[in-house]
């Protein structure tokens, strides 16, 4: 596997320090997606998935899933009204002890195209010890030097805040390589789309809501019946970058619905099966491989570093 250049400042430690600097240090909590909750369900693969990948996830057999829904960032007290990403992290438990892990967000692109830009962005948003806010001049200078981040910022500015964890799309953002039983490979990106459609709130609608509504809303919804998302693969077309997660592929690329995710149970309070999990996006089943996207590659060790701190109470 390609590794980050040995002299890159974006080490796992520096990246996790960057999260702590930008969001404060909250011992025992996740450094990203700090506010969230556990849920469970299953995945049912479709024939179109089998046609694209030999991964057993697509066999059509019921695949147990542990899920974690979250609000982006390392602040466990962030408002559910924040104009940023909602997260859907999943663990598929496949036959034979294989696992497939992923952590998806409610935008089709990431804010940074490299781990180095990610680190610089976190450092630019470091909270001032006195004001407890980032220095606006540093943030402005960073944004001017990294125009690539504008696409994601615009996305959240232009799309409303989800009314429910169950009413927004979640993208995998990175390209992955899918190989079928004959060894034919295609690159694709995935998205989970709620079968009931999206529900995005404008500022007026948001005003009526408290800062914490997403967890209870999901509990009520799933108590009334399973929440379903379709998993769709968007296949790479000519010229689509396989390594830059800040640039989404054009709409209208060939796509295939490869399965259905059903969330059937939500944890009634804190805790649950997702708590101890580390949603390392490089844990992939046979039939799906990572692309050379350096951001994807950098996530794995950063998640391990964050988990080591969190699970030892730091
Ligand atoms: C270099 C880029 C990135 C770094 C360094 C990074 C780092 C992290 C860290 C340290 C955590 C906390 C893990 C834990 O405490 O267990 C986290 C959580 C998360 N990240 Fe990232 N991340 C990056 C990019 C992304 C991208 C591109 C996505 C979406 C495709 C994403 C989605 C998430 C989600 C959804 C969570 C919450 C997962 C959970 O519920 O456990 N991250 N990230």
Automatic annotation (TrEMBL):
GO cellular component term, pick one: cytoplasm
SUPFAM superfamilies: Heme-dependent catalase-like
Chain positions recorded as heme binding sites: 303
Residue ranges occupied by any Catalase core domain in the UniProt entry: 1-314
PROSITE patterns linked: CATALASE_3 (PS51402), TAT (PS51318)
One term of GO molecular function: heme binding
Cofactor(s) needed by this chain: heme
Keywords: Heme, Iron, Metal-binding, Oxidoreductase, Peroxidase, Signal
Entry similarity comment: Belongs to the catalase family.
Biological function: Has an organic peroxide-dependent peroxidase activity.
Name of the featured protein: Catalase-related peroxidase
Organism per entry: Azohydromonas caseinilytica
